Amino acid sequence: MAKTTFWDIIEQTIKKVGTPLSSKEIWDKANEIGTLGDFITTGKTPWATIAAYCYTDINRGGDNSMIIQTNERPAQFFLRELLNTIDLGKVQKQKETEIAKEVEKQEKRETKKFNERDLHSILATFALGDPHFKAHLKTIYHETSSKGAAGQNEWLHPDLVGIYFPFKDYKRETLEIQTHLTISSIKLFSFELKISLNFVNLRKYYFQAVSNSSWANEGYLVALNIDQDTAFRDELRRLNNAFGIGIIQLNTENIFESEILFPAQTKPTIDWDTVNRLVNENSDFSDFLKFINEDCKLGKVKSQYDKVLSLDELAKHVKEKGINNAL
């Protein structure tokens, strides 16, 4: 007896549901309604493979393809043979309503369980242990900023800022010659932190990160939950290529399996005008620069940046706050 294939899953699931589905929805529905059959996969993202099958069929088959794409963001697929059985316009409006309702439900769940600042210590722990960053982070509280005209400081402050010190990576002689040559291996980071990232909020959140990370060597948009849709990942890649802000997905089950999905473009120079404005506007950012100056003078880290949790403390924090990667 032939084993169930990806094609079987795609075709049978869409037929049974009767409406266009994203690749992730095809996989989830297949598990829910039983069209998965005896299919077994060791891949972590089978929906990405489903999307690849659909796109391949569309590109190769043209007007004779089995699959058609009915929507771009998020990408949704349907069977050509069933196209005359539905009112596609009506179905798309229903989908948009469902997505809006789901986003609203998700926001309520997020508000009820935990907030973005509960994630700060998780990110601080990841950033210090990750070999790319090795950075000490500090939270920037927007409440401590000077009160200006409405909109004056909007999207000015990042959620957290970070500093990489080369004290442990370079010998004293190397650090001294850098001083004489007026160069430095120190690197500054900016982080905008969110609970969820999807098509509904992407542009707002991404350009918020673009705005408040312009001063740093590297800027990142960080989220706990990121839409797995293939088209969404393509959009993240496009924005990253165009504007340089990196994307990080946190993993609460194992913080050091958090992933830099798209690295930030590194800027060799700091925007000192913006740094100076941040110093004037926000006492936390001013303290951050004072910490850097003091630690550079000492040649070691002695200042009080955000607390880095032990693995036991991290597990306790995640449990107490009800934080998870599956909202």
Detail the topology: elements first, then pairings.
Blueprint (H helix, E strand, L loop, with lengths): L5 H12 L5 H11 L12 H16 L5 E5 L4 E4 L8 H26 L6 H10 L5 E5 L20 E5 L7 H9 L6 E11 L4 H11 L5 E9 L3 H14 L2 E4 L9 E4 L9 H10 L1 H16 L12 H11 L6
Parallel strand pairs: 5-6, 6-7
Antiparallel strand pairs: 1-2, 3-4, 4-5, 7-8
- From the alpha carbons, calculate the radius of gyration and give it in angstroms: 24 Å
Strand residue percentage: 5-15%
Please state the overall shape, judged from the principal axes of the Cα atoms.
elongated
Structural class: alpha/beta
| Number of structurally distinct domains | 2
> What characterizes the major β-sheet?
6 strands, mixed
Strand order of the largest sheet: 3-4-5-6-7-8
Helix share, percent: 40-55%
If helices are DSSP runs of H or I spanning 4 or more residues, what is the number of helices?
11
What does this 3D model show about the protein?
The chain has 327 residues and is of the alpha/beta class. The protein folds into two domains: 6-86, Orthogonal Bundle (Arc Repressor Mutant, subunit A), CATH 1.10.10; 116-321, no CATH class. It has eleven helices and eight strands. The protein has helices at 6-17, 23-33, 46-61, 88-113, 120-129, 172-180, 202-212, 230-243, 272-281, 283-298, 311-321; strands spanning 67-71, 76-79, 135-139, 160-164, 187-197, 218-226, 246-249, 259-262. The strands form two sheets. It has a six-stranded mixed sheet, sandwiched between helices. A two-stranded antiparallel ribbon has the order 1-2. Strand 1 (67-71) and strand 2 form a beta hairpin. Helix 2 crosses helix 3 and helix 9 (272-281) crosses helix 10.
